[in-house]
Q: What sequence folds into this?
């Protein structure tokens, strides 16, 4: 009995030390990232260092195209906004692009292409960095989404992508559990396609 208690205490102490180390690492990483961003916008943004010159040009190019609702901006919107750790209102920006007079077929193709890439990144992060993904996603949301997948299977993926639900986080969780990639892409693209067509019909018949 004493040995069992001792073993449990050792496991508890080990887990607590590991979580503490991870927490410290996250804090240090966040401080470094915040320091870099502050330094960039206050000092380095206008510096002559080649890396920051190109970085500034790239970010300005991406942001200006997204704001202007260009075809390239639609691709950038789906490419960046489809990442589970970056929030962008994809549906709103898709609607804005439609209202700008762009071709529905072209922006649909560019949107689906960008989403396919960004959601693949989400899935890959979940697959290869499962522990990190679990830390980045709140436990309550993580297990809530996992429960829906267990209950509804591929249709949960479909409805997560049709409805304004956190489908990016879902993609990362599916990677953690090594969900079948073929089914993942089928229900992902089917759901996104139905959503985009619904938005397009709404613009055509209502707006």
A:
């Amino acid at each position: 009995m004493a040995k069992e208690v001792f073993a449990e205490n050792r496991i508890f102490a080990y887990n607590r030390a590991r979580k503490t180390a991870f927490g410290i690492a996250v804090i240090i990483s966040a401080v470094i990232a915040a320091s870099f961003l502050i330094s960039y916008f206050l000092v380095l943004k206008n510096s002559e260092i080649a890396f920051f010159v190109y970085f500034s040009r790239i970010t300005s190019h991406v942001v200006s195209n997204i704001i202007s609702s260009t075809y390239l901006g639609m691709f950038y919107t789906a490419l960046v906004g489809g990442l589970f750790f970056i929030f962008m209102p994809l549906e709103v920006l898709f609607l804005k692009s439609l209202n700008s007079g762009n071709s529905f077929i072209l922006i649909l193709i560019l949107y689906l292409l960008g989403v396919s890439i960004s959601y693949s990144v989400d899935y890959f992060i979940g697959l290869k960095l499962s522990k990190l993904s679990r830390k980045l996603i709140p436990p309550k949301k993580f297990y809530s989404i996992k429960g829906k997948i267990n209950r509804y299977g591929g249709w949960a993926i479909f409805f997560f992508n049709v409805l304004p639900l956190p489908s990016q986080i879902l993609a990362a969780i599916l990677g953690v559990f090594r969900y079948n990639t073929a089914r993942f892409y089928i229900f992902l693209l089917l759901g996104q396609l139905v959503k985009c067509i619904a938005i397009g019909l709404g613009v055509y018949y209502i707006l």
About this structure: The chain has a mean pLDDT of 79. The chain has ten helices and no strands.
